[in-house]
């Protein structure tokens, strides 16, 4: 494509901190696609909690200045060299890539796929990272079976709503937690038959009442620090405690002997280690898209923010004001 600009809009950080370190720029260089990469003009960029970890320094950025972002939907505008998995100029793609808080991203073709016919751009951008996370968690972190009792924290959040819908689709009994009545109603509508508003209900006693004192065979906990002990308390004997995030802060070191009380499994998985190979990535994308289309999953978009309004988006996410997915529109 001959008409590519040399400068683009984007959001960088030069140091870690609060939302004040997010810098909206209009003169960042448009990257060149290298070996195994395609240059993508982003239509919609997914916001994920992990972006806040890089901003605060909980996870170290590989370099500074650093463009945040991990996923987007857009159009291939230039092909790099090497293995591109059949991607070419003009293809609409969904991708997992660093540096997506920008108009253009040089993305690893191995983690990009063509958008399925009929899939709305916003839905695709909202689906990939959180949907794949939820899917790999219920398939591999704890392979959930029909009839299993499962506890999901932050059930009305982005990843939470995916977990709830996928768990319902595989026939699990879902117990969710949330902080407000609005969130409780939303997660119930998505398929969490039993919701606990932890602002005024005791989670452990409610879980034990529902499971007739057995507890849940799996707990999916993306809240982290504040819920870890509670999650272990809610676990069934021989259950899987799946700690997959740090929304409330990192879980402090755990003494392994604590697991013997229930012969529990403890896991700390990340999506990226379930989709290392192209085959793994394609397998889960295919399965996720099947769920979205055949099971008619509702991909809830909380709001679409202008790139220049990224600080408000991070504040809303960290302030627990959101339900479902937050997107950025890089053209604004
Ligand atoms: P969410 O949309 O779920 O937002 C976070 C939610 O966590 C809030 O809405 C809130 O729900 C709950 N929460 C409870 N305590 C706090 C707190 N102290 N501060 C902020 N939020 C709190 O975000 P995401 O779906 O983007 O991410 C959810 C979790 O999943 C994160 O920990 C993230 O890191 C993790 N994750 C992990 C991945 C992996 O590969 N391991 C991949 C993707 C996400 P409520 O008010 O109802 O309590």
UniProtKB/TrEMBL annotation:
<dbReference type="InterPro" id="IPR011032">
    <property type="entry name" value="GroES-like_sf"/>
</dbReference>
<dbReference type="GO" id="GO:0070402">
    <property type="term" value="F:NADPH binding"/>
</dbReference>
<dbReference type="GO" id="GO:0003960">
    <property type="term" value="F:quinone reductase (NADPH) activity"/>
</dbReference>
<dbReference type="InterPro" id="IPR013154">
    <property type="entry name" value="ADH-like_N"/>
</dbReference>
<dbReference type="InterPro" id="IPR020843">
    <property type="entry name" value="ER"/>
</dbReference>
<protein>
    <recommendedName>
        <fullName>Probable quinone oxidoreductase</fullName>
    </recommendedName>
</protein>
<dbReference type="InterPro" id="IPR036291">
    <property type="entry name" value="NAD(P)-bd_dom_sf"/>
</dbReference>
<dbReference type="GO" id="GO:0005829">
    <property type="term" value="C:cytosol"/>
</dbReference>
<feature type="domain" description="Enoyl reductase (ER)">
    <location>
        <begin position="17"/>
        <end position="328"/>
    </location>
</feature>
<keyword id="KW-0560">Oxidoreductase</keyword>
<dbReference type="InterPro" id="IPR013149">
    <property type="entry name" value="ADH-like_C"/>
</dbReference>
<dbReference type="GO" id="GO:0008270">
    <property type="term" value="F:zinc ion binding"/>
</dbReference>
<dbReference type="GO" id="GO:0035925">
    <property type="term" value="F:mRNA 3'-UTR AU-rich region binding"/>
</dbReference>
<dbReference type="InterPro" id="IPR047618">
    <property type="entry name" value="QOR-like"/>
</dbReference>
<dbReference type="Pfam" id="PF08240">
    <property type="entry name" value="ADH_N"/>
</dbReference>
<dbReference type="InterPro" id="IPR002364">
    <property type="entry name" value="Quin_OxRdtase/zeta-crystal_CS"/>
</dbReference>
<dbReference type="Pfam" id="PF00107">
    <property type="entry name" value="ADH_zinc_N"/>
</dbReference>
<keyword id="KW-0521">NADP</keyword>
């Amino acid at each position: 494509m001959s008409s590519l600009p040399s400068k683009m809009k984007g959001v960088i950080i030069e140091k870690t901190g609060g939302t004040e370190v997010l810098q909206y720029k209009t003169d960042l260089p448009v990257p060149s696609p290298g070996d195994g990469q395609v240059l993508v003009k982003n239509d919609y960029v997914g916001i994920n909690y992990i972006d806040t970890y890089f901003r605060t320094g909980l996870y170290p950025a590989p370099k500074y200045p650093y463009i945040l972002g991990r996923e987007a939907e857009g159009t291939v505008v230039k092909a790099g060299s090497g293995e591109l998995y059949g991607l070419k100029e003009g293809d609409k793609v969904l991708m997992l890539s660093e540096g997506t808080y920008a108009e253009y991203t040089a993305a690893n073709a191995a983690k990009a796929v063509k958008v399925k016919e009929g899939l709305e751009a916003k839905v695709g951008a909202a689906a990939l990272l959180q949907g794949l996370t939820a899917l790999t968690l219920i398939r591999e972190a704890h392979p959930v079976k029909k009839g299993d009792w499962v506890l999901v924290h932050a059930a009305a959040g982005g990843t939470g709503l995916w977990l709830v819908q996928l768990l319902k689709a595989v026939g699990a009994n879902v117990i969710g937690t949330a902080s407000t009545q609005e969130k409780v109603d939303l997660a119930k509508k998505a398929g969490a038959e039993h919701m606990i508003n932890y602002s005024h209900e005791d989670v452990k006693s409610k879980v034990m009442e529902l499971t007739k004192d057995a507890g849940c065979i799996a707990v999916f906990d993306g809240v982290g620090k504040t819920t870890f002990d509670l999650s272990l308390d809610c676990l069934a004997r021989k259950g899987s405690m799946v700690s997959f995030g740090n929304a409330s802060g990192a879980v402090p070191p755990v003494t392994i002997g604590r697991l013997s009380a229930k012969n529990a499994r403890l896991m700390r998985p990340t999506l990226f280690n379930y989709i290392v190979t192209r085959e793994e990535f394609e397998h889960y994308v295919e399965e996720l898209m099947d769920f979205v289309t055949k099971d008619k999953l509702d991909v809830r978009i909380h709001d679409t923010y202008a790139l220049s309004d990224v600080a408000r988006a991070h504040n809303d996410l960290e302030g627990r004001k959101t339900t479902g997915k937050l997107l950025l529109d890089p053209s604004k």
